[in-house]
Amino acid sequence: MNFDFSDEQKQMRDEARKFLSEQCPPKAVREVLDGKAPYDKALWKGLAEMGFLGVAIPEQFGGAGAGHLELCVIAEEMGRALAPVPFSSTVYLAAEAILIAGSDAQKQKWLPKIASGDAIGTLALFEGKGNPSPKAIKVAANGGVLNGVKKPVADGAIADFAVVAARTGSSGRESDISLFIVDLKAGGVEVKSLTNIDLTRGQAEITFKDAKAEPLGAAGEGWGVITQVLDRAAVLTAFEQVGGADRALEMGRDYALDRIAFGRPIGSFQAVKHMLADMYVSATLARSNCYYGAWALSTNAGELPEAAAAARISATQAFQHCAKNNIQVHGGMGFTWEFDCHMYYRRANAVALGLGSPSYWEDALIDRMRKKNAA
Amino acid sequence: MNFDDTPQEAAFRAEAKAWIAANAPKQYEEELRKASLGRVQLKGANILEVAKAWQKKKADAGWACLHWPKEYGGRGSSPIERVIWQQEEGPFGRLSSMFIIGHGMCGPTMMAFAGEEQKRKYLPPLASGEKVWCQLFSEPAGGSDVAGLRTRAEKQGDEWVINGQKIWTSGAHYSDYGILLTRTDPNVAKHKGLTMFFLDMKSPGVEVRPIKQASGASDFNEVYFTDVRIPDSQRLGNVNDGWNVSLTTLMNERMSIGAGVATGFPELFDFCNSLMLEDGPAIENRAVRAKLANWAVKASGLKYTSMRAISALSRGERPGPENSIGKLVAGSMIQDVATYALDLQGAAGALTGPEDAEVAGKFQAMLLRAPGTRVEGGTDEIMRNIIAERVLGLPGDIRVDKDVPFNKIPTKGRA
Ligand SMILES: Cc1cc2nc3c(=O)[nH]c(=O)nc-3n(C[C@H](O)[C@H](O)[C@H](O)COP(=O)(O)OP(=O)(O)OC[C@H]3O[C@@H](n4cnc5c(N)ncnc54)[C@H](O)[C@@H]3O)c2cc1C
């Protein structure tokens, strides 16, 4: 048994951290936060050059072919840096959907472009409020075209293409759902930016009016693919969340060491110390759940559905917990726009919802544990 | 990152499995499996005798205290082999609970500070369970603040004379030996005047009085010392260096790694799977599921945190203060889990009779034992201090008594 990343993987983490601390300092994140750019284009190009976009894409499709453990390591650093780029939507969602369900031709067409940073992709799943469910999908596919509205779509306003979940039957079952690839720059697609709590990552509404769509995977098997994509993305996103939680904890710790009140560093007050100790505890529990998820993801183990849900819940809690208490430790300063605390708070709370909200994953976890126990 | 056994690990596992299958006291397996925190009892058998017999059998075949050196009664095993053994031993491992203090704390302290001859004399019977050890640290005036203890040791010739009182000493009533922390110089700051010994609990002048615990059971004791004599050869470490010696003990205490701290979650999950509420099975209730999910990820988080620690150990890294997390999280979790399991039973949740209470009163027993878990071996607050100071590097608490001679420190909060 060895329950840790390898030395090479840790080296990769150091490399990614160094790269991001240089190319993605808080100042760069603020360019996007303040609305000066929809995402950090230079960073996106740089990530492609470093080979980070295609880490888990096989070499034959233009990637580095390293694997998912390596992608987990990069994900953690992306979350730590709050990188304002469409990494999760393109790499965890779109690329994974194509890897799972795409034909050879579709893989040849899209994956090299993703790895090189030439195509931004996303998954168009949600249609208003509610959690992932086949019943909630109204966008319909008929005769090779799509009609209907998707929202919110992560990074929808900057994406070149979307993997869209659409209805192809009316039986009321999962088999009604099929997946399609849609070129968002083509006709029949209207995209509108939406405001959201995380100002470093855009959300959009996409309206399809007879938009041309290319099937991805077999008809009627879309929901199975969506479930797999969400599980995989849950693990990867959980690493981003742990990266963010760790950074928020560090910020709080550093501030507690520097800020003096009543003649002492506030970090010497036990109420503050214990708040930080509890942040450490939640970040550590989440990290350990994530490692299990990483193992399940990289080996495609039967445990993946359960491990993914556990990693997702635990990391969501940790990031929210650390981000909110980081502001508390910072006092009034923490509530200013100028301090970076709110960027982590915004991200923590937005990323908690993107793949299905906490209650969705809680339900999923218990469901999956029950099935395993019954088996 | 992988969970697979290496070929050597697989061979070790097979050997352990086969030996356990052939030798374990299977007649108690069912009872031990059902036992939960706060209640390991065997019907019609003396648990101490059963535990000692199983420990002795293990020791004779080379399966006791696996990570200890062979010459002291162990096997010289790797940390991973120790975990494999624990996995295979399963419910029978619960029989070792009466040896935890001896094996986890006294043994390692003896190994670090006793003379070679003493180690060879005292450690093998400790490993084999023939002799049981206890830890005599806490006093009415010194629990979290261990260094505040008052039991005196005065040198007379080649002997030390001990007078004072210890409290909350687990297992003192069936212990043969104990490690004892005493004050040897009250005129210097509190940490600087302590000295550690080990002693025979049957020595004249040692009186053990069981205390009835809040749970109703009696696992711990008061221990009184009246002119108890200990030869200087049973001193552990230098005179007035007892604080450093005790830190070794406490580090080992907190490290009890891979021991799989009980969280109560598996029990609660099983319970919710079988319990029927007014509107159907508990497990199908949304609110129940949300609660379960939140505890599930704490339990799995702890499990994989300890696996990470074991991986680090097996690479030769030293276990650090981050291991305080296990007891901190599990302690309050088991208390909350038990409270919730009773909530699900409604008014009948208050009943403790094994016939009337669900699952033979398991959660009621858990509830009543849990407060102790959050206190023994360092309270939640002390664990948080350790994490904040030694892991996160925050300033230590202000210690107004730090440089004050011990005999000048005030002894009451409200004068
Ligand atoms: C079941 C059980 C078994 C035990 N077994 C043994 C044994 O075998 N051998 C042995 O030597 N001892 C044993 N103990 C004693 C145990 O180690 C002490 O009870 C424990 O360390 C707490 O000390 P105390 O009881 O004096 O509480 P106190 O130290 O008086 O604490 C009271 C409260 O004050 C808080 N507090 C104290 N100091 C601080 C601080 N610096 N910062 C913040 N909060 C603080 C505590 O967290 C607690 O909430 C056992 C205790 C129990 C409950």
From TrEMBL, chain A:
> Which parts of the sequence belong to the Acyl-CoA dehydrogenase/oxidase C-terminal domain?
220-357
Please state which protein family the record places this protein in: Belongs to the acyl-CoA dehydrogenase family.
Read off the SUPFAM superfamilies from this record.
Acyl-CoA dehydrogenase C-terminal domain-like (SSF47203), Acyl-CoA dehydrogenase NM domain-like (SSF56645)
InterPro entries named in the record: Acyl-CoA_Oxase/DH_mid-dom, Acyl-CoA_Oxase/DH_mid-dom_sf, AcylCo_DH-like_C, AcylCo_DH/oxidase_C, AcylCoA_DH/ox_N, AcylCoA_DH/ox_N_sf, AcylCoA_DH/oxidase_NM_dom_sf
Q: Which cofactor does it need?
A: FAD
Q: Which UniProt keywords apply?
A: FAD, Flavoprotein, Oxidoreductase
Q: Which domain of life is it from?
A: Bacteria
Gene3D superfamilies registered for this protein in UniProt: Acyl-CoA dehydrogenase/oxidase, N-terminal domain, Butyryl-CoA Dehydrogenase, subunit A, domain 2, Butyryl-CoA Dehydrogenase, subunit A, domain 3
Protein name stated in the entry: Acyl-CoA/acyl-ACP dehydrogenase
Q: Which GO terms describe its molecular function?
A: acyl-CoA dehydrogenase activity; flavin adenine dinucleotide binding
Query: PANTHER family annotated for this entry?
Result: ACYL-COA DEHYDROGENASE, ACYL-COA DEHYDROGENASE FADE28
Enumerate the spans annotated as Acyl-CoA dehydrogenase/oxidase N-terminal domain.
6-118
Where does the Acyl-CoA oxidase/dehydrogenase middle domain start and stop, copy by copy? 133-210
From TrEMBL, chain B:
Q: SUPFAM superfamilies recorded for this chain?
A: Acyl-CoA dehydrogenase C-terminal domain-like, Acyl-CoA dehydrogenase NM domain-like
Please provide, alphabetically and separated by semicolons, the GO molecular function terms listed in this UniProt record.
flavin adenine dinucleotide binding; oxidoreductase activity, acting on the CH-CH group of donors
Report the GO terms under cellular component. plasma membrane
Acyl-CoA dehydrogenase/oxidase C-terminal domain: residues covered: 240-392
Any one Pfam family here would be Acyl-CoA_dh_1
Q: Which UniProt keywords apply?
A: FAD, Flavoprotein, Oxidoreductase
Q: Where is the Acyl-CoA dehydrogenase/oxidase N-terminal domain?
A: 50-130
Under InterPro entries, the record lists: Acyl-CoA_Oxase/DH_mid-dom, Acyl-CoA_Oxase/DH_mid-dom_sf, AcylCo_DH-like_C, AcylCo_DH/oxidase_C, AcylCoA_DH/ox_N, AcylCoA_DH/ox_N_sf, AcylCoA_DH/oxidase_NM_dom_sf, Mycobact_Acyl-CoA_DH
Q: What is this protein called?
A: Acyl-CoA dehydrogenase family protein
Which organism encodes this protein?
Bradyrhizobium quebecense
Phylogenetic classification of the source organism: Bacteria, Pseudomonadati, Pseudomonadota, Alphaproteobacteria, Hyphomicrobiales
